Amino acid sequence: MAGVFEVEVDGVEHDHGVGHHHEPNQVDLSKLSPEEKWRVEHARMHAKHKGHEAMHAEMVLILIVTLVVAQLVLVQWKQRHSKSYNLVTLFQMWVVPLYFTTKLHWWRFLTTWFIFSVVTAFVSFRATRKPLNCTTPRLVYKWFLLLYKISYGTGIVGYTVVMFTLFGINLIFRIKPEDAMDFGVSLLFYGLYYGVLGRDFAEMCADIMASTVGYYSASGMPTKHLSDNICAVCGQQILVDVSEEGIIENTYRLSCNHVFHEFCIRGWCIVGKKQTCPYCKEKVDLKRMFSNPWERPHVMYGQLLDWLRYLVAWQPVIIGLVQGINYILGLE
């Protein structure tokens, strides 16, 4: 497509080298390529916002102040009332992406969200029953550990695809850069989102189940005495010795000499975000516990998810608050 188009900005015509029109701003966007459309919209945006530098500086200042104040409020809330903070954050994590994806008609995400919600609701329901069924803790930790590993693998694949696209490796397979990038970013989003959400639900279920079993209480001393051959997480007998190799799972001994089922202590520490012994509250050395170097990235991935929780749950709320302040003050 040849030609030149001109866009008038406050009486001054700007030539963008695309097509020539005798009437300024009268551009038929349907006949332009995506790059040309972007140039037209870019020129119009500059025309609209020219002369508003003071207003833009005020809006940036409002954004910075709101971010700082919101961060201080969230930190104080988490320190003083961690339980309510975690519940509200979990609700935000669960609902906010649902609102935006429904609005944008992202049916693939809505399908995976619905499946995740149904299975997790069933598992959470089992975790809150009293008396607790002897198979429930194992079921809960297996589900959330499986979900954690799937999200971890999905995130790694998405990150790899994004990096390959940046280096142009997608061209070897004749895949368009925009298609490869969209695929990689989507996988990365799925992995991070369900990783964060799954860990939050796992933490809630871990507290409820361990308190129900009686060997753990969030506030202080356990309500039952722990025998040497009983797992404090699920309350079931340990059949495999620490020195033996189990057929299904092994037995772990912490530095405080308390022993646990492999799935139970993995779910408790990595998925449930607990870094203390479920019985005596002594701090767990995760690097010593998982000596295999291939297992340590799971610990770092868990720490990354904790940081991303703020971006997913609270960032949209803060941005909405900033837009509300700008609207009240008449800033556009």
Spans of 5+ residues with little confidence (pLDDT < 50)?
1-24, 292-297
In whole angstroms, the N-to-C terminal distance is: 36 Å
Biggest sheet character: 2 strands, antiparallel
Q: Supply the number of helical segments.
A: 10
Number of strands: 4
Strand order of the largest sheet: 1-2
| Helix coverage percent | 55-70%
**Which structural class is indicated by helix and strand composition?**
mainly alpha
Element string (H = helix, E = strand): EEHHHHHHEEHHHH
Average pLDDT taken over every residue: 76
Radius of gyration: 27 Å
Question: What proportion of the residues form beta strands (DSSP E)?
Answer: under 5%
Name the overall outline.
elongated
Notes on the protein architecture:
Helix 5 packs antiparallel against helix 6. A hairpin with a 2-residue loop joins strand 1 and strand 2. This protein has 332 residues and is mostly helical. It is elongated, with a radius of gyration of 27 Å. The longest helix has 37 residues, at 177-213. It has ten helices and four strands. Strands 1-2 form a two-stranded antiparallel ribbon. Strands 3-4 form a two-stranded antiparallel sheet.
